[in-house]
Amino acid sequence: MAVPFSPAHQMGERTNTQKITKLPSNNCSDNRKLSVDTYGGTIHVEWDPQGAVTPMGQLPFFIEFLKLGGLFDTWVESCPLEMTSPNSPTKTNLLGTLFLSILAGHRRYAHVTTIRCDGVNPGLLGMTKIVSEDSLRRGLTKMPRAASIKWLQASSYKCYSPLLYSPWIMDIDTTIKVLYGHQEAAEIGYNPKKPGRPSHTYHTYFMANLRLVLDVDVQAGNQMAASFTVPNMWYVLDGIPRSQWPTFLRGDACFGTDGVMTACEERKLPYLFKLKKTKNVSKEIDNLMLTAGWHNAGQGWEGKESLIKLHGWKQYRRIIVLRKLQSKPRKKISESVKSRQQILSIPGIKECLDYEYAVLITSLTDEILTIAQHYRDRADCENIYDELKNQWGWGGYTTQDLDRCSLVARAVGVIYNWWNLYARLVNPDKHMEAITSRPLLLHAVAKQTSHAGQAHLKITSMHGKASVVRKILAQVVDFFESIKVIAEQLTVEQRWYLILSRALVKFLHGRILEPPLALPDTG
Q1: Does residue 14 surpass a pLDDT of 80?
Q2: In a domain, 370, yes or no
């Protein structure tokens, strides 16, 4: 007997529909009571398909956060989606479905089915229904590529722009999304975990320390080089006032190239990159090892600076050579295992075998200890990628065309920023990843009832810290009420500045953000 093929990975859109095998029918009503025998005794079960219940019972607090900040309604109104068919879903229903799906942690369009019976939250977002996965997938094709990019970049900017007047650092990095179907731009590129597997490349720009996504550009899997990353980065930076530019730009060895550094120098943007250990760079390391004057670089590292001009460069640039003594010294090798040829031993160079090295190149003038710590802080990018790909939707929502993959990636970044800032409003002391914050601040069973013309929502949280969260959310509601008291005197931007000041009180050291006299035009 032949076993039918069952794909182990998501295949994106399917061109052929498959029939679902139905279970045998007993010709009985679906609403009848069932008796189930359990270890605690017999329990009688019945369904209530009309009940206004939701598994995301604490979402109304987040919805008020979005409403006061003018985030969700502006996001919907400015969307370039135009539907001409009378049977097409409205923008609010389509984008609201995408919002709820991403927030719930879905990775595929098919997962939308799991929230279609939510009888509470769609109405709180101004929706009339949650659309089907097919309607959502088709609706996203109606957005023009250029207009949708501009729309989502403007939505991101509206979220984080008040923070750009404080000193901040921009991190740039790339990651890959592995593909298992026939997708546009699915090319074989750098893939250390699954070599030979086609992928897409995500070129991303972050606001360091706050874990905010500034923008993401999805390209073919073989376009990993810095030359594919920096054009959109300059497009983003050139679109905002110079007073909001980062203090410096930070990236790994992929960006330590003459082209990227020259562009930064022309725009007078300081930078800090890692430098690849090429032949000439290794010679400089050997020369520095023979000299004294190494300085403390923190966490067991020592540093020494120098100037270097590699082949093809027009000028000398400052490098910081970092070394760290290995905890287990390498064995002294006297001859090659393969060729049995003796290795040349030079006095002073032999000790290099016991050190681990890193070379940084920068236009900053800070001391070695500060620069070394700046680059160590860049490691937080990997934590952001891990969260976005495994706990949000960057690892999924796969379609056959590149435009929708790029659109959803940017939408995930926008909604990730919203939730990130909301979670900091609840807990300003630290960043909570979605795997922690969703069960704590989102998931709870809630039932909506109506009495005397008023809507009531009864929430039951099964979290171990439910009582603590209940008190914190009450404080958040009190803060929202204090804003609504003076809402008529404040613009939407001013309300958002107040909310950010409260959410990032630790990052801002208690400083209250104040909007500029004239906000820049982001359209």
Answers
A1: no
A2: yes
DSSP classification of residue 56 = B
Q: Three-state SS string across 51-65, please? A: CCEECECCHHHHHHH
CATH, residue 314: 3.90.350.10
Does 50 map to a domain? no
Position with higher pLDDT, 21 vs 440 = 440
Residues in contact with 225: Cβ distance below 8 Å, sequence separation at least 6, in sequence order: 254
Per residue in 69-112, pLDDT tens? 999 999 999 999 988 888 889 999 999 999 999 999 999 999 99
CA 111 – CA 106 distance, rounded (Å): 6
Bridge partners for 9 per DSSP: none
The CA–CA distances, whole Å, from 34 to 26, 38, 50, 243 equal 13, 12, 18, 67
What does 485-513 look like in DSSP terms, one character per residue? HTGGGS-HHHHHHHHHHHHTTTTTTTPPP
Closest to 181 measured CA to CA, from 402, 406, 410: 402
The domain total for the chain is 1
pTM over 0.70: yes
Distance between CA atoms of residues 396 and 394, nearest Å: 6
- The answer to whether residues 165 and 101 touch, using CB atoms and an 8 Å cutoff, is no
Contact 429, 472 (CB under 8 A): no
Handedness of CA 53, 54, 58, 64 (dihedral sign): negative
Report residue 381: phi and psi, to 5°: -60, -40
Enclosing domain of residue 249 = 148-331+347-387
Farthest-apart Cα atoms in the chain, separation: 93
Q: State pLDDT tens for residues 406-456.
A: 999 999 999 999 999 999 999 999 899 999 999 999 999 999 988 888 889
Q: Pick the closest to residue 412 from 105, 60, 181 (CA basis).
A: 105
